[in-house]
Amino acid sequence: MGKSSRLKMAKNTNIRISLPAVCFVWQIAMIILFGVFIRYDEESDTHWIEHRRKKNISTNLENDFYYRYPSFQDVHVMIFVGFGFLMTFLKRYSFGGVGFNFLIAAFGIQWALLMQGWFHHLDEHDWKIKIGVENLINADFCVASCLIAYGACLGKVSPVQLMVLTLFGVTLFAVEEYIILELLHAKDAGGSMVIHTFGAYYGLTISWVLYRPLLSQSKHLQGSVYHSDVFAMIGTLFLWMYWPSFNSAIADHGDGQHRAVINTYLALASSVLTTFAISSISQNNGKLDMVHIQNATLAGGVAMGTASEFMITPYGSLIVGFCSGIVSTFGYLFLTPFMEKTLKIQDTCGIHNLHAMPGVIGGIVGAITAASASESVYGQEGLINTFDFKDAVANRTVNIQGGYQAAALFVAIAFGLVGGALVGGILKLPIWGDPADVNCFDDDVYWEVIVFFFFLNELKKKEPANFTS
């Protein structure tokens, strides 16, 4: 081995100083910023009683908590359990998958409450951010985009790099979300564009900038084993079950939220069948690939995000799920190898197939569905309520709305690509303690796993036939 090769492999991954410093300093910064800016909103403050009397609200059940908390709970489980366990499929990177997911989500929700608050909820009278349960849901949504980006870099970056990725990712998300929802007045209840498309292209571009030419040295760790796939499937099932809550969590009370649940429920079911079908037909022996089942079965939920509260009809939802399941599975079969070999994009979790392409499909479906909306289907009041044709956009037509929906998709992609390139350049600096190519996808770099692997090696000695991989 040449001297240059040894230097490339010799990386300092000791984060004993850098990780505690980042965690302590940033958490103290959060405490200070929360002390200056964050306050309870009128529905979580002790003045709620006075607010009830002033607004002639008859019961505490009118408090937004009782409408939103069940959805918040479901979304919260998706963020910490669903995304976390979905990333445990690598044979030697389960700790990093679920543990670093926990770390960056916990930091991200705090930073998101501030960033989204400054853009959406800053009280012009006292310059405070008033938060309630809906803010918590939106903070989880914001963090989801960073967790998606993490999927492309899984096993190849240090926890310090992930904290930096999240810091900038949340900031970019808040700006992008403000442009799409407030300036363009596009609708995206389930975040096909704002969350999935942005997060996926953000992560893919970072992975492209951080390309590792010698990653093949750790190729033997880039696969799964039986038990790691089972753990990842737990994450899949949590995500699949709660995705209707994700897409409906911040939809309008009443028919909009109800419709979003139905549409997402049907799209998810449809994508499962097409995923199983394509996975089986793609193999000569007809056997199923667990990678497809863990990921592409969720594509219907991603693709239904933008149009979830629109009158897309139940059979339309099935069509969206049908198509997205096929596209996502084919992505794993053909696009992932092509992207790694030709485009130099090493996408560990295949987020291009689960989030990027279905997210773009969702944005296109949302634009078409919005442009084709009519009073005969929605009713006059229903049309105004669904698309919020009020105030500054009171005179907007559905055709114009469709155009703005399409523009929003391009904004999400642009923020992901440009933001990912800039942040990737920062993360490429040799100061973050990232692993060498030969040590990627291995928990032993950042986690204390000696006891675990001692027992694993003992088990290998006793039952070598079970560890042929």
UniProtKB/TrEMBL annotation:
Keywords: Ammonia transport, Cell membrane, Glycoprotein, Membrane, Transmembrane, Transmembrane helix, Transport. GO terms for molecular function: ammonium channel activity. Gene3D superfamilies: Ammonium transporter AmtB like domains (1.10.3430.10). GO terms for biological process: ammonium homeostasis. It is a multi-pass membrane protein. Its main location: membrane. InterPro entries: Ammonium/urea_transptr, NH4_transpt_AmtB-like_dom, RhesusRHD. It comes from Cyprinus carpio. It comes from the Eukaryota. This is Ammonium transporter Rh type C 1-like. The keyword Transport applies. Signal peptide: none annotated. It is found in: Cell membrane.
